[in-house]
Amino acid sequence: MGIQTKKIIKPGEVRVRIAPSPTGPFHIGTARTALFNWLFAKKYKGSFILRIEDTDLERSDPKYERDIIENLKWLGLDWDEGIDVGGNFAPYRQSERIHTYSKYLKILLDSGDAYYCYCTEEELEEMRQEQMSRGEPPRYTGRCRNLTPVQRKKFEKEGRTPIIRFKVPQKLLKFRDLIRGELEFDTSLLGDISIAKNLGLPLYNFAVVIDDYSMKISHIIRGEDHISNTPKQILIQEALGFPRPQYAHLPLILGPDKSKLSKRHGATAINWYKKEGFLPEAVVNFMALLGWNPKTEKEIFTIQDLVKEFSLENVQKSGAVFNIEKLNWINGLYIRQMDPAELTKKCIPYLPQKARVLNFNWLKKVIVLEQERMKKLSEVDERTEFFFKDKLDYKPELLIWKGMTTKEIANNLDKIEKVLSKIESEDFKTEKLKKALEDISPKDRGEVYWPLRVALTGRKASPGPVEIMKVLGKERTLERIREAIVIITKSK
């Protein structure tokens, strides 16, 4: 088959899939691939399919399947067909499709395009070592290609368990990648590939071809680490007379050191980002920029924007560097744009237990004070904890401003306490607080504002003292100032 030419995509004809294996937590790389498939399907009013590749029985676990489903839903990437929703091409778990694989394995065996291989692991390793000693790439030589029935029986009597190999034709195979252009492979370098452990246990490169054909997948959009699998799969398609789908291989996601993103670079599981308080909209926005170039300076995209503007033509070939600071920045922007009530609801699970039962409107005031500074929801606990403590615990030297004596600090706090005591409780919500502080401020505002901030929060960095007092109210404000006077006085 020759090189594919670019096709005009008609609305409704696109069928794409994401087919993760439930053998570990849902990875951000897989999520990015799911997003690009989803955007491509939505852009062309096509179908996005979720399929589970669970034939690796030893490593597959139902908890990881649940993790895939939950995190795709959290990201807002709904699927038109697949597990959990069904569809015309069910079942969508490989473990439930064994009869389909057996049917096509038998076709290949009967046609002579596949055969049983009885080589042991030791024999295969010896073959690999010999090839490498000659400077050749390791590959299966086809030793069992033409076994006679007598030879097969002999091997079976020895207790050898055969696998099924595909007879790879030797030729130059070309295909057009929608991102990388025309690619060419010399199939003689592949050797005869294994496609099944037996009729009931297919291996990846075979099962994926059958699934994609059976489910009428039109475009296969996946990571560039699958490029080496593509010629193998095309050869199987050709042997079975299947049409060839369009291929697009996405760039790898890299760590800051430009190596493939892994756990040593930090968290890679989507669930971690969810638990840390990253918003799904921000994560989707961030993932879209991992390999896709919008060709503008714009960096913030709603999901509707992405559907409208996304194209495979603007996906880069080179690796995309994962930058957690960029995600923090994007997430902070989304947090600042949120409705305060909605943000408060999302923050409540991150607050101390005693805070969760407090008046919602008061909690909202607390959250709003930190809304401009938060990068992720999980920060809210540490940033606001002083609001929920009955008594603050800090060292007296924290109250000191630029070489002032403890006596001067105590005097200033005493002045503040006296001025604020005269303000009515209902006026603690107004600008009268700011005016009162300005009336006692010396030339350096820090001599008043610094010790007051520490007295109210027990920390160096926080929202402004006036804003904090408005939320704390008169009684708790004066109580904390008096405690600070005691602390600084005792330190003399």
Question: How would you characterize the overall build of this protein?
Answer:
There is one protein chain. With 492 residues, the chain is α/β, with parallel strands linked by helices. Among the domains are: 270-384, Glutamyl-tRNA Synthetase, domain 2; 389-490, Arc Repressor Mutant, subunit A (Orthogonal Bundle), CATH 1.10.10.350. Helix content is 44%, strand content 11%. The chain has a four-stranded antiparallel beta sheet. The protein has a three-stranded parallel beta sheet with strand order 1-2-3. A hairpin with a 3-residue loop joins strand 6 (172-177) and strand 7. It is elongated and about 105 Å long.
Write the layout of secondary structure elements.
Layout: E1 15-18, H1 28-43, E2 47-50, H2 62-75, E3 81-82, H3 98-111, E4 114-117, H4 121-133, H5 149-157, E5 163-166, E6 172-177, E7 181-186, E8 193-198, E9 201-202, H6 204-214, E10 219-223, H7 230-240, E11 246-250, E12 253-254, H8 270-275, H9 280-288, H10 303-309, E13 320-321, H11 324-337, H12 340-347, H13 353-356, H14 360-371, H15 379-384, H16 406-421, H17 432-440, H18 446-457, H19 465-472, H20 474-490
Parallel strand pairs: 1-2, 2-3, 10-11, 12-13
Antiparallel strand pairs: 4-5, 5-8, 6-7, 8-9
